[in-house]
Amino acid sequence: MPWILLTLAGLFEIGWAIGLKYTDGFTKPLPTALTAGSMVISIVLLGLAVKTLPIGTAYAIWTGIGTVGTVMLGIFLFAEPVTAIRMGCITLIVTGILGLKFAA
């Protein structure tokens, strides 16, 4: 169950990171409210997951999920560049996430 909570926390982290782009500097009320809600949910789920999981592992995986998801959505939603170096770095992050998951 803590791994599911951690995964959901990472997905909500992606939500708030992408949401920041839509808030237009926190001037748009609905995107701002959704972004703030995603932040709170993400932190609460992370807090529940670390009741059982090691904090270092959980935090690294949480940020890794957020990083990879945000980069991928940035590519699809905002036409951010896709380069071999970017994709190689994403592969390294995913490898690190999997390594931490199986080492925990």
UniProtKB/TrEMBL annotation:
Recorded GO MF terms: transmembrane transporter activity
Keyword Cell membrane listed: yes
GO biological process annotation, one example: xenobiotic detoxification by transmembrane export across the plasma membrane
Compartment(s): Cell membrane
Membrane-traversing stretches: 33-50, 57-78, 84-103
The entry's keywords: Cell membrane, Membrane, Transmembrane, Transmembrane helix, Transport
GO cellular component terms, A-Z: plasma membrane
Membrane topology note: Multi-pass membrane protein
Chief place of localization: membrane
One of the Pfam families matching this protein, by short name: Multi_Drug_Res
Family: Belongs to the drug/metabolite transporter (DMT) superfamily. Small multidrug resistance (SMR) (TC 2.A.7.1) family. Gdx/SugE subfamily.
Record-given protein name: Guanidinium exporter
Source organism of the structure: Shinella kummerowiae
Lineage: Bacteria, Pseudomonadati, Pseudomonadota, Alphaproteobacteria, Hyphomicrobiales
